[in-house]
Amino acid sequence: MKARQQGNALVLTIPTKFQVEPNTEFVAIKGENGSITYVPKLKNVFEEAAKAGEDLRTPLEEEYMHDIEE
Fold first, then answer.
1. Average of pLDDT values for 15-24?
2. CB environment 8-44: b (16+ within 10 A), e (fewer)
3. Spans of all domains in the chain
């Protein structure tokens, strides 16, 4: 695999055998020895809940509330 120039960026091609879907987002991590690791970017459940107007604390409070009341 060889890095190639595309505009102002260097591009590494992902072989099709890895079966990565188009538009999949990754986070790049550079190691001490110059290695580069790409990790799929995960959704932030807290941001998703805030966008949907959900409060993630409510189910936990309801689940453990009986312990406090007893």
1. 94
2. eeeeeeeeeeeeeeeeeeeeeeeeeeeeeeeeeeeee
3. 4-69
Cβ pair 59, 45 in contact under 8 A: no
Please indicate, yes or no, whether the overall pTM of this predicted structure exceeds 0.90: no
What pLDDT sits at residue 14? 92
Euclidean distance between CA atoms 6 and 11, whole angstroms = 7
**Side-chain-side CA neighbours of residue 10 (13 Å):** 6
Separation of alpha carbons 13 and 17, rounded Å: 12
Compute the residue count for the chain.
Answer: 70
Distance CA 59, CA 52 (A): 16
Mean pLDDT of 7-32: 93
